[in-house]
Amino acid sequence: MRGQDGVDEVAIDLGEVSWDYETAVVSARPAWYGPAAKALAVAAVAVGLVWGSVPASPPALGEPLWSSPTSMPGLGVTPNAIFAVEADSIIAHEPRTGRELWRAQVPERISYLDWSYSGVLVAMSYSVDDGYQSGLTLIEEGTGKILADFWETDMDGSAIGRSGELLLLYYRSVGPDFDESCRGDGCAVLTAVDIRDGRTAWSYRSRQPGDLLTSIVDGQVISLAFVGREGRVNVVDPADGSVRSVFEIGAVQHRMSILAGDNLITLELASGQGLRQGVVKAYGIRSQALEWEATIELDESAYLESCDKTVCIGDSTRSIVLDDKTGRVVEERPHEFQEGTGFGLELTSGVRIGFVEPSGFSTDRSMEAVVTDPAGRVIRRIERVVPVWSEERTESAHLLRRGKEAVDLLSVDGSGKVGWLGQVPSTVEWCGVQGELLTCWSYNEPTTGRGPMGRVWVWHLPQ
């Protein structure tokens, strides 16, 4: 159905009552259309609905399966457990019941829990007692056993992926950026840990500022390379930490180089405003020679990404997929919306939900969702939403839409249609989907010390 302004609407039913809800509304109060608006509002009041909420059509989100306090805004969610931090411990909860599976003591000032990597949970910590230090603690997901604990000074750490039975950890100096020198003993450290016993397999330290590039295929890191601003490339073997090769490619721009298959790809964008020439070059990491070169017209929002074994390039108007071996254009898709590609979710049907950050300051971190069909045509826009993240590409996606009194849970199906599933507490900051479960984290009032600062909520997700 089309509204008076030509924007698609969503039909939502409640028993015998049916009306249209405009999805592009900014405020918490729906926009109602048609001559029957007054009668429908009276009917809504008659069935006990609160103005400002969207009526649901069954099945709707029910009561939480369980809830538990947590002392930090980081969660680990896997099919087998939901991990939260309480005081100085990580607690593993059974996903459907919340039953405690195990409790493990962790370092002080734990700042975040990373997602589990093949049965290993990564906890990130920091200390400022004797200068800035950060730590990565590896914990066995099934038992809570601490496998390893790594600390570095003046560096921040994270896990970047797996190579066989090795988990690769990356520390980067907190001092420099791409164009500055590093503090202390090196700019970055790569460490490979055997996830079976926590043993350090190898460690590599880089002493030049630059970007770390990774090539990940089928969930495995197959190549690593450090690229400095002057174009010096150090290719590192993820299996043993050895340097495969060192070669020069000339000056590169920050975050304008990637690994794709066996090639290192760079994008050089000419200076200026508006459309300009972008030069894409591919260097073989084995041959150390220029393999191919392509010229593409791009605007100032140009980006370069690795897409498995292909190369993804785009700007605010289109996305282009290149063959990594030849540079041939495999696919080109326009964007009808001009605000920028940002980031998004893609459904199995090819429908894409792109998220555009507001130009001004947003107190609730909400964005505009732009739903497009597989050809890139805009189906609809939804304002004031936050994405609900999923690790898998699914048939439908979910969004949180913030109102003044509550947060609505919306679904977007494979055709781009939007439905209302229910409401979550107004304090909820973010949510994620794992299978049939919706896990959310909500913020409490500020507390002193390491008392509960938030809460974990788990619901069964309506199908």
What does this structure look like?
By secondary structure, the protein is mainly beta. 2% of the residues lie in helices and 52% in strands. Strands 3, 28, 29, 30, 31, 32, 33, 34, 35, 36 and 37 form an eleven-stranded mixed beta sheet that branches. Strands 4-5-6-7 form a four-stranded antiparallel beta sheet, with no helix packed on it. A four-stranded antiparallel beta sheet has the order 8-9-10-11, with no helix packed on it. A hairpin with a 5-residue loop joins β10 and β11. The longest helix has 10 residues. The N terminus is likely disordered.
Per DSSP, the total helix count is 1
What is the typical, i.e. mean, pLDDT?
Answer: 76
Q: Can you tell me the residue ranges where pLDDT is under 50 for at least 5 consecutive residues?
A: 1-58, 336-342
Going by helix content, strand content and strand pairing, the class is mainly beta
Straight-line distance between termini: 24 Å
The percent of residues in helical segments reads under 10%
How much strand content do the residues show? over 45%
- How many β-strand stretches? 37
Large-scale geometry: globular
- As a whole number of angstroms, the C-alpha radius of gyration is 25 Å
> How many strands, which pairing sense, and closed or not: the largest β-sheet?
11 strands, mixed
